[in-house]
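ok trying this again, last paste got cut off
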Amino acid sequence: VHLVESGGGLVQPGGSLKLSCVASGLTFSRQQFSWYRETPGKGRELIATIPYTLGLPPSYDDSVKGRFTVSRENAKNTVYLEMNNLKPDDTAMYFCHPSATTYWGRGTQVTVSS
């Protein structure tokens, strides 16, 4: 299994970024995915999950609800995390993770600063 996150960068408060995660080596269309973020102070925290079953809604941590949107494109084996109204507290390394597996990518760094 290979996971590659991208799309991170430096953005000002209030700005937006869209992260991508391309997954290979698994049956993508039958796999639930989550996005996590990690900081030295808070460790790794779950922020969003998208089921593989059509019609089941994604779930979000309260800290990102209403600002972040998780989506998937099965034809491209890609999961996305659209992040709007970013805050300095969103600064972290972001990872996608196929649920119920031990696989992790290298992550992509998001820094929110003026």
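PB: full thing came through this time. The mean pLDDT is 96.
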